[in-house]
Amino acid sequence: MIEKASLLSKVKKGAPSLVRKFSRLVSIIEARSPSIVAFSGGVDSSLLAYVASTVDGKTVCMTASSETYTPAELQKAKEFAKEHGLRHIIVKTRELDDPKFRSNPKDRCYHCKREMLAVLNERAKELRCNAILIGETASDASDYRPGHRAVVEAGAAMPLAEADLTKDDVRELSMLFGLDTWDLPANACLASRFAYGEKITPDRLRAIAKAEQLLKDAGYKIVRVRAHGRTARVELGRDEEVDLASLRRIAKKIRALGFAYITLDLEGYRSGSMNETLGKKR
Q1: How far is CA 234 from CA 3, 25, 194, 257, 266, in A?
Q2: How many CB atoms are located within 10 Å of the residue 139 CB?
Q3: What per-residue confidence (pLDDT) applies to 78?
Q4: Among 122, 141, 154, 262, which residue's Cβ finds the most Cβ atoms within 10 Å?
């Protein structure tokens, strides 16, 4: 297949270990054809969707749409799919209908991913697909990921992890293939912005999305607004140039969204910082 040969020629510019891992990834994808890729538009799922669609023309890429994701993220997924000719379907998920998810327990991600995979499994039956592919990597085993349990229960496959591809490997492959997602910052759904035990509602999700957009519009690239009751804790990328005068003006606008206090986290952005008090994995 010309497309697969083209990918392999690009990968050969990398280290021999990366070539071996990529060859393994291709074999895993081909063995599960035809498949559905759970495609969020992030770094990992974008690479998986691109490779799977290139080596197997039967691949279907599905993006879950709900209140926990911003319209901007959905638009990015659409644009990536269009640019690379992916067969792309958007499906609606209803995790907010689940009281367990809304109550925001420590295993919130399990309930969210279980809902998404239930929807994808139904579509897989309709489309006669053999497998659902998830973009977990070998690096994810070191993080607290309760959603992993839902992946295992649903029988979904994790080709990137199976091929022992790490986060760094995924970024390198994405760069070799010329994907503009290669340097995207890590992202997670808006529900991850709330302290565990705080109820998640559509209004609060919208407030967080608007608060983060205010900061992005001011030029900040890596942004998280974490909700602790009526306090908004702002995390900015550690390399961001902070303008305190600008932040004070933005703070007034964030306060108007329903927050009483707006604080700047002096440690800066950390992936999954709400998990720092848990002290456990998966």
Answers
A1: 44, 38, 12, 14, 9
A2: 16
A3: 98
A4: 262
Q: Identify the bridge partners of residue 227 per DSSP, sorted by sequence position.
A: 194, 232
Tell me the average pLDDT of the chain: 93
Q: Give whole-number Cα distances, 63 to 3, 20, 269, in Å.
A: 24, 29, 26
Residue type, position 73, single letter: E
pLDDT band at 140 (very low <50, low <70, confident <90, very high): confident
- Closest by CA to 62, choosing from 71, 147, 48, is 48
User: Does 280 have pLDDT greater than 70?
Assistant: no
Distance CA 82, CA 74 (A): 12
> What is the pLDDT at residue 141?
76
Handedness of CA 117, 271, 44, 68 (dihedral sign): positive
Place of tokens 């023309």: 57
pLDDT at 2: 52
Q: What are phi and psi of 258, to 5 degrees?
A: 120, 5
pTM (2 decimals)?
A: 0.91
Sequence-distant (6+) residues with CB within 8 A of 136 are 44, 145, 148, 151, 158, 160, 161
Cβ-Cβ contacts under 8 Å for 115 (sequence gap 6 or more)? 93, 94, 95, 98, 101
Distance CA(199)–CA(193), nearest Å, equals 11
Q: Please write down the long-range contacts of 175-181, taking CB distance under 8 Å and 24 or more positions apart.
A: 176/10, 176/11, 176/13, 176/14, 177/7, 177/10, 177/47, 177/50, 179/46, 179/47, 179/50, 179/84, 181/41, 181/42, 181/43, 181/46, 181/47, 181/80
Closest CA to 131 of 159, 90, 166, 100: 159
Q: Are 28 and 163 in contact (CB under 8 A)?
A: yes
Euclidean distance between CA atoms 18 and 88, whole angstroms: 28
The residue written with tokens 């349990």 in the block is 149
